Amino acid sequence: MGKPKDDGPSATWEKDVKIILCDLCLREIELGNRPSTHFNKEGWTNLIKNFFEKTGREYDKVQLKNKWDQLKKDWKLWKELKRGSTGLGWDPRKKSIDAPDEWWKEKLEVVPNAKKFRYCGIDLELEDKLDLMFQGIVTTGDHAWTPNQGLHNENDTEDSEHIDIDFESFEDPSQNLESINDCSQLKRPSSTTSTGRRKRIFGSTFLRSQITQLVNFCTNISSGISASKSITDTPSLSAAIKVLEETTEAFEDMPLYLFSTNLLEDPTNREIFMSICPDRRVNYLRYCYGNHDTTS
User: Domain Myb/SANT-like: where (predicted)?
Assistant: First the structure.
């Protein structure tokens, strides 16, 4: 393209550029190009091309993947920082959580790496997009378990790439069955015949390999459908906040408003709030707020 590539360490990521990258990533997820924890070859190719068209920045796969991984780490750290806290607001001056110094002191003792968010946090718009990107593949600080992964190993890295499987490469199952049937008609060789042992071992290994590939293929298809469904079914946090601010009684009641912003971070509460009659939304918020005061 004639334009020199930015070096990874010197690449800058302003907020609007991060938003563009997130939007492009979400589009590839909706297209099914992230079948597991990372994008497939087509997904990365589209990201590189579309990111250049949107920003004029010619970043390669390594640079975009590094940013993906960094966004995921920051998102997990941000969620850990906010875990267990309710009624938190947003300080537009500090661009972070509006909380007393005592709260920050206690939290940073537990999550010391989150100190970088003290004066520069993740705002609602970006957090909403990161939720959609990572909630389906990260649980309690690690990848969500999928059937083809076996038991979870804490030494597994986040950089493991998904291996694409070409479904068209599978042989006709009927041909495989015919081969097996033909073999079954042969006279069973003596246990001392090495050729017979090799045939039996090869047949077992081949069948096991075909079954494993088929299971992996079906699992990847299921993961892609689940990721796409989760994006389209759950109302976004930014959309819920807009509706909240249009709910006059809640917006003018600052304690209720701050409580509600935190309440709507939960996808279930958010879906209930967006689904009920607009005239009854403030009643729902007050009910939750009163229930919260009683139990706290």
Answer: 12-106
The two structure tokens encoding residue 36: 């597991």
Average of per-residue pLDDT across 8-21: 79
- Last residue within a domain, chosen from 183, 215, 233: 233
- Which strand (E) or helix (H) includes residue 112? none
Of all helices (H) and strands (E), which one includes residue 157? none
Chain segment 227-246, per-residue pLDDT in tens: 555 555 678 888 888 888 88
Q: In the chain, what's the furthest Cα-to-Cα distance? A: 88
| Residue at which a domain ends, from 233, 253, 274 | 233
Q: What type of residue is 56?
A: G
**What range defines the domain where residue 218 resides?**
167-233
Same domain membership, residue 245 and residue 212: no
What's the mean per-residue pLDDT of the chain? 75
Classify residue 197: in a domain, yes or no: yes
DSSP state of 163: P
